[in-house]
TrEMBL record:
Superkingdom: Bacteria
A Gene Ontology cellular-component term: extracellular region
Cellular compartments annotated: Secreted
Presence of the UniProt keyword Protease in the record: yes
Principal location: secreted
Leader sequence residues: 1-21
Cross-referenced Pfam families: Peptidase_M28 (PF04389)
Name of the protein in question: Peptidase family M28
Source species taxonomy: Bacteria, Pseudomonadati, Bacteroidota, Flavobacteriia, Flavobacteriales
Key words, A-Z: Hydrolase, Metalloprotease, Protease, Secreted, Signal
InterPro entries attached to this UniProt entry: FN3_dom, FN3_sf, Ig-like_fold, M28_fam, Peptidase_M28
PANTHER family named in the record: METALLOPEPTIDASE M28 FAMILY MEMBER (PTHR12147), PEPTIDASE M28 DOMAIN-CONTAINING PROTEIN (PTHR12147:SF26)
GO terms for biological process, alphabetical: proteolysis
Length: 450
């Protein structure tokens, strides 16, 4: 008599005491931090950034009231305030670097600077790094216009405000490894600030496990279509990694893992955590590195082989993006605070906070994750090794149909090997480490083991 898959799973759970359906555990400290994100804080930061008139990358660096220099120094001063509240565990700096004239959007050799706040980890043996960013610079209609007002409220005052709010809240806690909060410059001129930081990370061989880029997360009304929606946000992630080797490409094709790049696993992780901690916000997984033929500050990190994604509002408003401040035919143009939805922005910031803190407290990912293929069977056997460092409470086995965009099922086990009644012909799998509070590592896609 044939057993149904459901009955097989029942038997599996009955006879294997270390195997259970996943029980989602929420960390009360993360829930508390999410509640500490304040709409009024985000609005205050955005309006302060707008007050500098323009934050064009090549604008005034000497004035204390106008231009990119004044904005950089103000952001650093805020980071310094957070540092005092953290007993100086948080440190800040403006990381200056020189960009040569490129004949495109950098007219002359220029000194640029990323404003960075670093929260050092408490475990000297954990070398992992997380980065979250927004871009400080703004632009008018003409990308080379460094004189006209360019408020940059949403693009990307919203991303910078998100980064600053996370730095304020998270710097009051301790995490085992290093967290970097950064307001990069040069995005509108060619992603120069992000490229500089990504190159530093690569040259110094940082163990950077994830980079979150926030660029335009404060608008909920689209131009043209007039769609208004403050319940969805896009997360962009690359399909095939930029740095994929020939051997990796061969394995990707053999296992059909075109939709399971590390960045895409991070995007799914964000969706799972957001569903857990942030009401009335759904992550829309967009299967491309960025918007059509466009790019953002996560791109240089992807190009250097790091796992990176972009948060971006669901509906862009082009009346308030890359526009001079003006009024035409009774339509107000320009990236001004009055056109933003700060409650929407709060929810997206909470999604970032829940994701960033979960990762920051997570154990390391399981190692040498594999799926056995020595026999033809309608079950699947996955094996892996425990990672070094923080003790592991157990592992989640994530399961989805090949046509599904997101994980549909999860099974928890304390073992390092599991047989589940799901055929590898019909499902994709991944394994993630979990601690006792439910903090999970990024999922790892298994490779065939013969």
């Amino acid at each position: 008599m044939k057993r149904t898959v459901l009955f097989q799973l029942f038997l599996l759970l009955l006879v294997a005491p270390n195997v259970h359906s996943q029980i989602t555990t929420s960390d009360p400290e993360i829930a508390k931090m999410v509640q500490e994100v304040k709409t009024e804080n985000l609005e205050t930061i955005v309006k302060k950034l707008v007050s500098f008139g323009t934050r064009h990358t090549l604008s005034d660096t000497k004035s204390n009231t106008r231009g990119i220099g004044a904005a950089q120094r103000w952001v650093k001063s805020e980071f310094d305030k957070y540092a005092l509240a953290s007993n100086r565990r948080l440190t800040s700096k403006i990381d200056y670097f020189t960009i040569k004239a490129d004949g495109k959007r950098i007219a002359v050799d220029s000194e640029l600077g990323n404003v960075m706040a670093t929260l050092k980890g408490t475990d000297p043996n954990d070398d992992r790094v997380l980065i979250i960013s927004g871009h400080l610079d703004s632009r008018a209609s003409d990308v080379m216009d460094a004189k006209s007002d360019a408020p940059g409220a949403n693009d990307d005052g919203s991303g910078v405000a998100c980064v600053m709010e996370l730095a304020r809240i998270m710097s009051q806690r301790e995490f085992p490894f290093t967290l970097i909060f950064v307001a990069v410059v040069g995005e509108e001129q060619g992603l120069y600030g992000a490229k500089h930081l990504a190159d530093v990370a690569k040259a110094q061989k940082w163990n950077l496990i994830a980079m979150l880029n926030n660029d335009m997360i404060g608008n909920s009304l689209s131009s043209g279509t007039q769609l208004r929606d403050n319940t969805q946000v896009r997360v962009f992630s690359e399909t095939i990694p930029y740095t994929e080797t020939e051997a990796e490409a061969k394995m990707r094709k053999a296992t059909n893992r075109d939709n399971d790049s590390p960045s895409r696993q991070l995007a799914r992780y964000i969706k799972t955590v957001t569903n857990q901690y942030v009401p009335q916000l759904d992550i829309q997984l967009v299967y491309r590195n960025d918007r059509f033929l466009r790019g953002g500050d996560h791109t240089p990190f992807s190009q250097n082989g790091f796992t990176a994604i972009r948060f971006c509002e669901m509906n862009e408003n082009y009346d308030h993006q890359h526009q001079n401040v003006r009024k035409e035919n009774n339509i107000q143009y320009g990236d001004l605070p009055e056109f933003m939805d700060f409650e929407y922005m709060r929810k997206v910031t909470c999604s970032n906070l829940a994701t960033f803190s979960n990762l920051a407290w997570s154990p390391k990912a399981p190692e040498n994750v594999g799926i056995e293929v020595k026999e033809l069977t309608n079950s699947s056997v996955l094996v892996w090794q425990a990672p070094q460092g923080k003790p592991i409470f157990g592992y989640n086995i994530l399961i989805r149909e090949t046509s599904a965009s997101h994980w549909q099922k999860a099974v928890f086990t304390k073992d390092n090997k599991i047989e589940i009644p799901y055929s590898k012909d019909n499902y994709f799998f991944a394994v993630q480490s979990v601690d006792a509070l439910g903090h999970a590592s990024l999922p790892v896609f298994p490779i065939p083991i013969r």
